[in-house]
Amino acid sequence: LAKTTQPISMDSYEGQEVNITCSHNNIATNDYITWYQQFPSQGPRFIIQGYKTKVTNEVASLFIPADRKSSTLSLPRVSLSDTAVYYCLVGDRVGSSASKIIFGSGTRLSIRP
Amino acid sequence: GAVVSQHPSWVICKSGTSVKIECRSLDFQATTMFWYRQFPKQSLMLMATSNEGSKATYEQGVEKDKFLINHASLTLSTLTVTSAHPEDSSFYICSARSSSPYNEQFFGPGTRLTVL
């Protein structure tokens, strides 16, 4: 599985847009990029997945450049409730019968009033 | 999304005792379930993968005789921490993957184990 590198922590303020970048230089052709969110003392929750270009859902946007060696999770207008750890994963598409989710170190995002 | 539950949500036990944690998929059948362990301020570490009706596959470094996994039905998997010690204190999280064709994977809320 491709190794990912992301900032250990980030701070921001309510109402701001937050961008968390993840590096995955060794991403394979068939790999997808997936982001999970974990609140304290809870299990992770799927946020978004993409393969290339841009993906947007009701929670976030995922930007993937053409070389796919990095990706950026964008959270628009964050609130205090977005304080969590965000994990970037690279590997099988979620929904693949072969997938086994392996978590990296994650980014601890703290939102201040 | 689909719901995965864990029981208990927290447990405190004495050193040397065994603790069983249940993981249930409430509204779907899960042919595969996964068990993770998470220490404070650290990421989730995959411990094992269990398929209904067969033996679990353990990740390297995880003692299979220490962490007994049973996946007897399509909606229930159990993790038993045998002869627990304080260093086994951790947050244990399960996830369940629905059957084909969707293969979606959902995580439980976790179980906090404290061994005194």
Can you count the beta strands of chain B? 11
Q: Into which percentage range does the β-strand content of chain A fall?
A: over 45%
Distance between the termini of chain B: 36 Å
Cα(first) to Cα(last) distance of chain A is 38 Å
Q: What is the strand tally of chain A?
A: 9
Radius of gyration of chain A, CA atoms, in whole angstroms: 13 Å
Strand neighbour order, sheet with most strands of chain A: 1-9-8-3-4
* SSE ordering of chain B: EEEEEEEEEEE
**What does the overall shape of chain A look like?**
globular
Tell me, rounded to a whole number, the average pLDDT of chain B: 92
- Low-confidence parts of chain A, pLDDT < 50 over ≥5 residues? none
Helix content of chain A: under 10%
List the helices and strands and how they pair.
The complex is a heterodimer of chains A (113) and B (116).
Chain A: E1 9-13, E2 18-23, E3 32-38, E4 45-50, E5 53-56, E6 61-64, E7 70-75, E8 84-91, E9 107-112
Parallel strand pairs in A: 1-9
Antiparallel strand pairs in A: 2-7, 3-4, 3-8, 5-6, 6-7, 8-9
Chain B: E1 4-7, E2 10-13, E3 19-25, E4 30-38, E5 44-51, E6 57-58, E7 67-73, E8 76-81, E9 90-98, E10 105-107, E11 111-115
Parallel strand pairs in B: 2-11
Antiparallel strand pairs in B: 1-3, 3-8, 4-5, 4-9, 5-6, 7-8, 9-10, 9-11
